[in-house]
Specification:
Layout lengths: L1 E2 L4 H15 L2 H5 L4 H14 L1 E2 L2 H4 L4 E7 L3 H8 L5 E2 L2 E7 L9 E4 L2 H11 L5 E4 L11 E6 L2 E7 H6 L3 E2 L1 H6 L2 E3 L1
Parallel strand pairs: 3-5, 3-6, 6-7, 7-8, 9-11
Antiparallel strand pairs: 1-11, 2-10, 4-5, 8-9
Helix pairs in contact: 1-3, 3-5
Length: 179
């Protein structure tokens, strides 16, 4: 495991740019909620992750499946629907074991991750969560909202196993990289 420490200023600027560019001006006047910050980070992870061509070739859109109980988090993620990512429309759906293919999977708890992971195994989905220990549990991106800002860890080994490539810019901003 390599600890990647970067100035907090770089991470704060990246987050601020994401929030300003991707949320309405009226919402920018208020302090963003943790759920909105996590949703903005999810969107930015999508922009800085390269999917294997065969994983998205069959679909004109990128499908974000969410397994969340928090209605505010679901609403923040649903607000991303319709945005363009890598030239494709982002579709946001609730995850079920019968869900169509997920390109991105956001889960909010260890229990839901365990229940869903077996259904995602053959998939090449980018997996994201904010529960502590997600990257150690086999997830790819773990978001941590702390008093001094938002951070994230990347499980590079799991990303590689799925055929995903994280941009060097994203890797430089990660708090920890699990290899």
């Amino acid at each position: 495991m390599r600890c990647n420490r970067k100035p907090h200023l770089v991470q704060a600027v990246l987050l601020l740019v994401a929030l300003i560019c991707h949320f309405p001006l009226a919402a920018a006047r208020e302090m963003p909620s943790e759920q909105s910050v996590r949703a903005a980070m999810v969107f930015n992870f999508l922009k800085f992750t390269e999917f294997p061509p065969e994983a998205i070739a069959k679909s004109p859109e990128i499908r974000l499946c969410m397994a969340v109980r928090d209605a505010r988090q679901a609403e923040a993620l649903a607000a991303l629907a319709g945005r363009k990512v890598q030239g494709r429309e982002l579709i946001v759906v609730d995850f079920t074991t019968q869900s169509a293919e997920c390109h991105v999977f956001y889960v909010d708890s260890h229990q839901r991750w365990n229940a869903a992971a077996e259904h995602l195994a053959p998939s090449r989905a980018l997996t994201i969560s904010a529960y502590p220990g997600f990257a150690r549990d086999g997830g790819m991106v773990e978001i941590a909202i702390q008093t001094d800002g938002a951070r994230f860890d990347i499980n590079l080994a799991e990303g590689r196993r799925a055929g995903l490539r994280f941009s060097p810019q994203l890797l430089r901003l990660a708090r920890l990289i699990h290899e």
